[in-house]
Amino acid sequence: MAAPFLKSIGYTPTEEEANNFPHTQTPFANVEQQLRDKISSYIFYELAKTTKSKLSYSDVFINTCANAILGQFREELLIQLYQAFDRYRPLQCSVLPGEYVQAIYLTRFEQEVLCHPERVGVLQDSRLHIVFERIQHCIDSVIEMLIRLEADQGEIQALLQKENDPLLKASQIEVGCSDPHNLQRAVMIVTFECGERIVYKPRSLRNEEFINQVIGFVNSVQSRIALTSLNVIVRRDYGWQEYCASCAPRNFEERRKLHERLGALHAIAHGLCITDCHHENVLFFGQYPYLIDVETLGHCRPKVEIDIQKFLGIDSSYEFPSRTGFFPEWLAGTGDDAPNSIRSGALLKNDKISSTKYESTFLGVGTDGIILDQIKERRSDLEEELVSRLGVDAIEFVDDIESAFSDTYLALIACKDKILSLLTPQDDIISRFIFRDTHDYLRILNSMRYWGLTDPKRLLSRAFKLNPHLPQTILFSEVEAVLNGDVPKFEVALHERLKLFDGKNWIFLEFYLTPFEMIERQLRSMSADRLVFDRRLIIGSILSFDETLRKGALVSESQSDFRSSKKAMHEPILNDTHQDVLINGHNKAALVASLHRLADGTRFSYVPMEVGFGRGIAGLTTYLSVARDIDPQTGTDLFDLLLMKISSAIEHQTLALHGPNSHLVRLGLADGLGGLLFSSALMSNFYKNPILDKILNSIPVDALISRLSSETKLDVFDGVAGLLVGLAAVAKKANDPSRLALIEEIHEVFLKHIDELTSNRSSVGVAHGLSGVGLALAASSTHVKNVDIDSVIGAILDIEQLHWQTSGVVEKFHSRCATSNSWCSGTPGYLLLRKFLGREMENDPVYIDFNSSHIQQNETLCCGSTGEWAVRSILNGLDGVQNLPKTDFERTKYMLRDWSMFNGVSGVELVTTSPKLLKRIISLGIL
């Protein structure tokens, strides 16, 4: 069906007139002119039917609207006309020669387009009808805007302070000034005859209104940094925003104040979980920055149970709240353009700057056919692109940024209740959830327009890289939007769960935190004590970016010295015992890429959220304590972030141990307090941090002792033996009497359960069996001597020997991990215990069997080749990387669940970053 505007009652040429069109130098000029007339006529008659025309839109103004609409689609229209004509011409039969035939065919084709557009739509692979439909949609959006302009005339006059002007007359519009909103409706700028301008956005500006109110609260608490905002008129489905021209600061003082205010805005964005503050969403007027697009207010965190990276099949979509995007950062990646791949932030011109850019030049009609375009490659000078922009100046004003961030952060704390009171009754705040960068959609959209990709399957496989973990509803929603020339919007209302629009229906996805919950939790967590850490995130982003620039020799020597002195102020202090972080011969760049993947991982539920060591954030933090030197800024920021989470978790655990649910608190190494203690002891070798001391001193000894009397779980991963491992590791640091008393109490627990331990029903292995209990008791016996405990260890050795000699024991080993060589449930625990006790094993059949087979299943520490390699290194006295398991750090698929120590990436990467630490973990701290 043809677009309605094509059937406008405006002038349509007859076939005879169309045949007599003059042949111009510009192909399809006649089509453009006729389309322009049809658009003007359509707008005029539609406005006449639906408005009272109080604003008396003139013919000249309506013609400018038509020009603006057609200009928005001109390039795409010409492409499709060229393509359609190229396919149209072979369908015609004629013996007329050369150029004359070309002119005749072109004239006939123009006639078909204008008089019988429905015929063009059926031409093979033509997308011309889609272009007409998009033009029609834009026309409808403009008409809708003009009707709303008339309805809101009074408030617009007040906003522009033109109350005395009885009738603001529009003289010009600009269409497509930003990404489309609300089912492809265009953003527009309206210019009035008096010279004033206003921005029309086809979505509610409640978010912007809320930010303006927050800025007012902040200014009332602290007046040193005067933040300003753009006034808005809020409607349910659309809004009007004050227009502000962009201009650069004029001198050094204005540049300093601009960066100072950016620091203040960064604090607000951090507190309200706003992301995506790149150059298109932040406007600069001299020393004043303005947030002009806050769709990502209250950016929600996915549910813990969902592995978003696998679920969505993408590398980076969820923006961590602290990474607001104001300041430039280098994107993680391993491709050819990764070293020059930048997310610009507010201060750089391009969202992503790569070493190669492409531009397309249309050559027009040729006698041998139509050459659609010729791709020309040009190199961009990265140094000129960056140094000429304001982004590289951030390091120069880092102190001003830091001070403004702190003042505004404290102001937010002071007025957090007022802010939350604004949100509570509101239901119409909408937050955009970012699945992919807008840049990715636009790149695919441009490819569609240039090359006519119309097959959705082709688009899925080539453009979106079809992934089996990504729901088809999301993929087809993206395809539907891009086919219609839109950027997909996945939106979530303030009190709702995530939903996406597939062109016809809203599809809901369940997430852990709504935008309101996200903002509330973020504001509630902010405190004067936390300020030091949160402030470091913003400074870390600036310093990290600047460090990369200096390595690339993009700044002068004097600038480099200045920036080095700034960076030295924020360097972490490392302990001298920090050894074997990198092993000679291994690819440091690959490990850096891995650490950046980890930084991206913190944006997902990909980071484990349990407390403990084996399956929780304590193990990941332990890995970072040795791996952060690979990329000091990224690693240290992540390390401090996770330490804060651990500190918060231990406070909750402490309360739980005293409360009615104390029986639910885990004690073991995998997810409980034992793992927390074990992690703290390991990390204290590598990093001095007051939070570690807080963790070590926060364990409620009395509550634990009362809990132990009723505890029945005895194993390492989930039970009392795991707590014993943690206490033994801590006792190596300091023989605190209270902790030693706790070890004695745990010994009594094991003596109480001696019959259960030595029964034939007991299992084997480190995780849940006798080997782990024996290692825990052996480790703790070096601090608290107990003859009875030595007898328990001897009994464990005997029952393990009996297990091995009993038929069917191999099947027991295999039942948990499909191999008897796995560290957690196989024979390695049996061998480690005997190694520690000095037993002879050379002729032991268990030792012989262990050395004769290898794990092929996976690479994890718990059940895979990493744990097996560490055990072999201990048993055979290897200090280096002999027989190092093959580990490809460049791959994107680990076949691991997360970044945990036992089942995830952290344990695997310790093979390369710190094999000494890995062997300490494998031996439960004995070595």
Task: Explain what you see.
Residues 130-492 form the Lantibiotic biosynthesis protein dehydration domain. By secondary structure, this protein is an alpha+beta fold. Among the domains are: 4-177 and 184-201, no CATH class; 572-922, Glycosyltransferase (Alpha/alpha barrel), CATH 1.50.10. Helix content is 49%, strand content 7%. The protein has 36 helices and 17 strands. The longest helix has 30 residues, at 59-88.
In helices, the fraction of residues equals: 40-55%
The fraction of residues in strands falls at: 5-15%
- Compute the average pLDDT: 68
Low-confidence segments, given as residue ranges, are 93-100, 302-323, 329-345, 347-392, 450-454, 466-470, 545-587, 601-606, 807-819, 880-897
Strand order in the largest sheet: 1-2-3-5-4
Structural class: alpha+beta
Give the topology, please.
Elements: H1 15-19, H2 29-50, H3 59-88, H4 98-115, H5 117-120, H6 128-151, H7 153-159, E1 170-175, E2 188-192, E3 197-201, H8 206-221, E4 232-234, E5 239-242, H9 252-271, E6 282-285, E7 288-291, H10 308-312, E8 329-330, E9 342-343, E10 356-361, E11 365-366, E12 369-370, E13 374-379, H11 382-387, H12 398-414, H13 416-423, E14 430-432, H14 438-451, H15 456-463, H16 472-483, E15 490-493, E16 498-501, E17 506-509, H17 515-525, H18 528-551, H19 557-568, H20 588-601, H21 617-627, H22 632-658, H23 673-683, H24 690-696, H25 701-708, H26 720-731, H27 737-752, H28 754-757, H29 770-781, H30 787-805, H31 809-817, H32 828-836, H33 845-851, H34 865-875, H35 905-913, H36 915-922
Antiparallel strand pairs: 1-2, 2-3, 3-5, 4-5, 6-7, 8-9, 10-13, 11-12, 14-15, 15-16, 16-17
